[in-house]
Design a protein that fits this description.
The complex is a heterodimer of chains A (about 55) and B (about 230). Chain A has about 55 residues and is mostly helical. Chain A has a domain at about 15-50. Chain A has 3 helices and no strands. The termini of chain A are far apart. Chain B is built from 6 helices and no strands. Chain B has helices at about 1-40, 60-90, 100-120, 135-155, 160-175, 190-230. In chain B, about 75% of the residues lie in helices and about 0% in strands. Chain B has 2 domains: about 1-130 and about 190-230, no CATH class; about 130-180. The chains are: A mainly alpha (about 55), B mainly alpha (about 230). The interface of A and B includes residues 46, 50 and 55 of A.
Chain lengths: ~55, ~230
């Protein structure tokens, strides 16, 4: 019960939202910047070089 | 809370991403296309004859440049989601977040994500020699995480223990050393590679400062709008 109460407090304080939103952002950066699948690599190639990601 | 975070981050990331894409296409892309002429062997550095420093680079490639605009907007939207989330936590802890203070958030983001990794792993043009890509990605990620933590400690830490820890976190990735190739096999002239690294960093700084200001501005605006609606 305590755990549920704590969870509600955390969610209300916005920490949980912030963590989830940040995780979504990191996921987008990872897929666009770092995944080496060749279709993604080719499409994002110029951006990866221009933004300083290790590319190939 | 979640809708305020998502809305402000999507607007901020998209605006900054479009401006970043424009800056990249004008300032970085021509240098990249120039380097690719050496990567593909169409131009040869230190060949028998001197090579023109101003080759024909072609015009706009709608498909290629369109994808670049799309992916730049995506990358900066990703960064915006992380930055707005961090701003919301800072505000909850008592910091003031505005478009003006967002400028400093932007500079800090640039230092963590672009400048710190570039100190040991400079932005690479196509056709330069480099170590294994996975090793470089791991080092890049570790450096960004360590540098972001260091800047957080400098901004929000209190006392010399926090600040000393920040210095250690900033220096450690470079003392450890980034993965570098065993031999140099790059075909691109150093003039082109240096200009590329400088342009990539300059455009990165401009884009991140814009991103920080947009994140601060949209975060406040969404707060007022949702506060008025509630």
């Amino acid at each position: 019960m305590n755990a549920v109460a704590n969870f509600v407090v955390v969610a209300k304080s916005g920490v949980l939202s912030a963590v989830l939103v940040a995780a979504l952002g990191l996921g987008i950066v990872f897929v666009t910047g770092h995944v080496q699948a060749s279709a993604l690599h080719d499409a994002a190639h110029d951006v990866r070089h221009a933004t300083g990601f290790p590319c190939h | 809370m979640a809708s305020r975070l998502l809305t402000s981050a999507l607007f901020a990331g998209f605006c900054a991403g479009l401006l970043a894409a424009l800056l990249q296409l004008v300032f970085v892309q021509p240098v990249l296309l120039h380097a690719e002429l050496y990567e593909s062997g169409q131009l040869v550095h230190f060949g028998a004859d001197p090579v023109s420093a101003n080759p024909d680079l072609g015009g706009i490639d709608l498909m290629r440049d369109g994808l670049s605009v799309l992916f730049t907007a995506l990358v900066y939207t990703g960064y915006a989601l992380v930055m707005v989330a961090a701003m919301s936590l800072a505000e909850a802890a008592g910091a003031t977040v505005t478009a003006r203070s967002g400028l400093i958030w932007g500079v800090a983001g640039f230092v963590a994500v672009h400048l710190a990794p570039a100190v040991s792993l400079p932005p690479e043009v196509p056709g330069v020699a480099a170590a294994d890509v996975v090793a470089r990605q791991v080092w890049w990620l570790a450096t960004v995480v360590a540098s972001a933590m260091a800047l957080g400690l400098i901004a929000f830490g209190k006392g010399w223990v926090a600040w000393g820890g920040a210095v250690v976190l900033l220096a450690a990735p470079h003392l450890f050393g980034a993965p570098h190739p065993d031999s140099f096999t790059g075909t691109v002239p150093p003039e082109v590679a240096a200009l590329f690294a400088a342009r990539a960093l300059g455009v990165g700084l401009a884009a991140w400062v814009l991103l920080g200001a947009f994140c601060g501005w949209f975060w406040q605006r969404e707060g007022q709008r949702q506060g008025a609606a509630a």
